[in-house]
Amino acid sequence: MIDIEKEIYVYNNIWGNVRRNLWEPVWDNVSDNVRGSVWNNVWGSVEDTVARNVSRLAKQKAKEL
Length: 65
Fold this sequence. Notes:
Layout: H1 4-64
């Protein structure tokens, strides 16, 4: 007969070690890099769009004057 408590303990122990030593450091590293690059790309494109629109509006106003 299978000892469920022992199986759960072994599983939790193994998964806990895997998670602490492999999963979390790799995931933290990947997610930080991905978040950083995605944020920089989004923010960069927002800045570019705003700058282009401001520039276009300024040129338009200059023509009207």
